[in-house]
Amino acid sequence: MSRIGKAPIAVPAGVTVTITDGSVTVSGPKGELSRELPGPISVRQDGDVLTVERADDSKSSRALHGLIRSLVQNMVTGVTTGFQKDLDIVGVGFRAAAKGKDGLELSLGFSHPVIVQAPEGIEFVIPQPTRIEVHGIDKQLVGQVAANIRQWRKPEPYKGKGIRYADEHVRRKAGKSGK
Q: If DSSP codes are grouped into helix, strand and coil, which group holds residue 144?
């Protein structure tokens, strides 16, 4: 039995879970998320507790059991508190600025500014020019948008310049050694 898959999911007050044939919809104060369930996995609600169950003990069912439980847990967490990824910009002249309502303008040493548009459900917050906060209710989408921003200028190992996650440690290399 999957240790993650058999753990119950607590549904806080203010969150509504709708289970239909093959899908789960979770709505809360921050929004609504929906996910299709694969065939051998089902979700059952008992009061304010969700339980993820599998139909059989086949290898594919066992593999999906814990995954679907984690995805449903992330949906419940997303509609109640949301998710956030913090990015730090390191480098002389590298900075970020808000561009319009839901855009981001990055100066990263290119001959042109880089414009990043926020997809539906994502919000950019720039508390200072060298810090970007990506907020949203879908954990996968928040992580993907943060990874796409980081992709523009990954941290390099010699001076550490680039865009990095706030909790990321960049391994530095020694530069050239003179004679």
A: helix
Please name which of 78, 68, 81, 63 lies closest in space to residue 23, comparing C-alpha atoms: 68
pLDDT in tens, 34-44: 999 988 899 99
- pTM (predicted TM-score): 0.89
- Give burial (CB, 10 Å; 0-12/13-18/19+) of 126: middle
Q: Six-digit token pair at 109?
A: 């040493």
144: left (phi over 0), alpha (psi -120 to 50) or beta: alpha
| 3 state DSSP class of 149 | helix
Question: Residue 2 — pLDDT band, cuts 50, 70, 90?
Answer: low
For 40-88, give the DSSP string. Answer: TEEEEEETTEEEEEESS--HHHHHHHHHHHHHHHHHHHHHHT-EEEEEE
